[in-house]
Design brief:
Blueprint: E1 9-14, E2 17-21, H1 30-44, E3 50-56, E4 59-64, H2 70-82, E5 93-100, H3 108-114, H4 119-128, E6 131-136, E7 143-146, E8 161-164, E9 168-172, E10 175-178, E11 183-185, E12 188-192, E13 213-218
Parallel strand pairs: 5-13
Antiparallel strand pairs: 1-2, 2-4, 3-4, 5-12, 6-7, 6-13, 7-10, 8-11, 9-10, 9-12
């Protein structure tokens, strides 16, 4: 990635909260912008003046100690941003086995119909893509994962389900995800995995981290 990167925008939620936003940067694609955001986030997770660094979709929020000079923080972030190189990223790759269809992928047939594909084509497309973990949210260990084949892009369900089983592999919009625990949800369920995504006894407790890469394989 070029060192001459367009700068992000900054705004403050209050005297202790700085938001870094790159959604307006049209010269970079989503993957490039998300890598930049996650790189800056990694640099601030260990900084004493930053209580938390929370990645989101092409934005980052830094929650700071009272009295932190946010103007200085902006300048530091700009230096990190402009000096970014893909080699600076440290990430892990995860291979996730999935059982598709039947009772464990109750929406697979409907997804295939809506996408004008066969069920086999949906499975193959989901397994063929290389994915990136953009950010975590919604519930502990729930990762928003980009890289979904454009043929599988569908809006969320009009009426969310009150219960989606733990381990459900699902798609919605331009992303895929795995539910770490039983919960409500409005994504299309196409399969199931036995991989544990969140365990409070592990360190770190979440299996995925922003910037990780991922692929799926039919079990």
């Amino acid at each position: 990635m070029s060192s001459k990167l367009p700068p992000p925008q900054y705004y403050r939620l209050d005297d202790t909260c700085l938001v870094i936003d790159c959604q307006h940067i049209h010269q970079l694609d989503h993957k490039q912008k998300q890598r930049l955001i996650n790189y800056v986030a990694m640099q601030y997770h260990a900084r004493y003046e930053v209580v938390d660094a929370v990645s989101a979709d092409e934005s980052l929020t830094l929650y700071c100690e009272l009295g932190t000079d946010l103007s200085t923080l902006e300048r530091q972030c700009t230096v990190l941003w402009s000096g970014f190189d893909d080699g600076h990223l440290v990430s892990r790759h995860h291979l996730i086995p999935v059982r598709y269809g039947a009772e464990q992928g109750i929406d697979l047939a409907r997804v295939a119909e809506q996408c004008n594909l066969t069920e086999r084509q949906v499975i193959d497309a989901h397994c063929a893509s290389n994915y990136d973990v953009d950010f975590l949210g919604f519930q502990p260990g729930f990762a928003y994962i980009s890289g979904l084949d454009s043929r599988l892009h569908l809006p969320r369900l009009a009426t969310p389900r009150t219960l989606v089983p733990k381990g459900s592999v699902a798609i919605a919009g331009d992303k895929t995800a795995i539910y770490p625990a039983n919960s409500p949800g409005g994504w299309h369920i196409i399969g199931h995995t036995e991989v544990t995504l969140f365990d409070p006894l592990n360190q770190p407790p979440a299996l995925f981290a922003p910037g990780d890469t991922l692929s799926f394989a039919e079990a």
